[in-house]
């Protein structure tokens, strides 16, 4: 077993100093098999002053409840943007594979896409809690709703959860073969499992983890050579890291560093 890197709650947020009020909460009880964590932004901006947030999301789905609707967002393959205006809130759940597969049978079709869910009662109850400033109650409502709707994960879904944990936290897992051996399954089995429960191939998940870590290192360690960051994170060379930045983020590592 390689060194496990805990899931960093700010990893993937490219400008964390520009975030609105942002709360993260842990799932409790049975919901912990379906949800990695809850994220709750709240904002109250001056009129005519928008806030644009850029996020390199985890390779996972999100269930999002706001004042207007409930949406299921599939995994993303590119940088996502959201512009906040006026005042508002959202309650999101970063779903584990068991949670996503329990809500959608076509996980791959939701990659880089979203779908509205007809859950009026869920939205109403969450909105009532948020109006009262009760974030813990709001996230608890979401957790109970997911457990009631999905039920207990199957052994296959628990294996998918373990797959995602391994791919997103173990820095020594650089190839699909590494993950398959660690989970004692074939590469083909692992690829099928990822396709059914995340919508992305395992290799895409490890590439996203590596780019998230690289962006965080570039931002937090301005004096560290890019060549050293590339080598430590398993890139072939600095050019490989540079290509990842340009192709996925749309800017260079040097310009991000400022």
From TrEMBL:
Entry keyword annotation includes Mitochondrion: no
Chain ranges of the HTH araC/xylS-type domain: 157-258
Pfam families associated with the record: DUF6597, HTH_18
Protein origin, superkingdom: Bacteria
Keywords tagged on the record: DNA-binding, Transcription, Transcription regulation
Entries under InterPro entries matching the protein: AraC_XylS_family_regulators, DUF6597, Homeodomain-like_sf, HTH_AraC, HTH_AraC-typ_CS
Xref: PROSITE patterns: HTH_ARAC_FAMILY_1, HTH_ARAC_FAMILY_2
PANTHER family given in the database record: HTH-TYPE TRANSCRIPTIONAL ACTIVATOR RHAS-RELATED (PTHR46796)
Protein name in the entry: Helix-turn-helix transcriptional regulator
């Amino acid at each position: 077993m390689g060194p496990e890197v805990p899931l960093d709650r700010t990893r993937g947020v490219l400008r964390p100093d520009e975030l609105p009020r942002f709360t993260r909460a842990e799932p409790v009880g049975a919901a912990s098999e379906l949800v990695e964590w809850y994220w709750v932004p709240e904002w109250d901006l001056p009129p005519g002053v928008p806030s644009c947030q850029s996020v390199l999301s985890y390779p996972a789905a999100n269930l999002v409840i706001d004042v207007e609707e409930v949406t299921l967002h599939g995994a993303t393959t590119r940088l996502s943007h959201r512009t906040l205006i006026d005042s508002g809130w959202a309650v999101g759940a970063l779903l584990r594979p068991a949670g996503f597969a329990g809500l959608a049978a076509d996980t791959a079709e939701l990659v880089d896409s979203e779908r509205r869910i007809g859950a009026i009662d869920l939205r109403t109850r969450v909105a009532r809690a948020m109006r009262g400033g009760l974030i813990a109650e709001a996230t608890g409502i979401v957790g109970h709703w997911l457990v009631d709707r999905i039920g207990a994960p199957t052994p296959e879904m628990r294996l998918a959860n373990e797959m995602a944990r391994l791919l997103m936290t173990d820095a020594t897992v650089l190839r699909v073969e590494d993950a398959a051996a660690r989970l004692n399954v074939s590469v083909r089995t692992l690829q099928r499992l990822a396709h059914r429960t995340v919508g992305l191939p395992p290799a895409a998940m490890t590439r996203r983890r590596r780019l998230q870590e690289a962006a965080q290192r570039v931002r937090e360690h301005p004096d560290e050579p890019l060549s050293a960051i590339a080598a430590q994170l398993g890139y072939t060379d600095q050019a490989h890291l540079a290509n990842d930045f340009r192709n996925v983020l749309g800017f260079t590592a040097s310009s991000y560093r400022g």
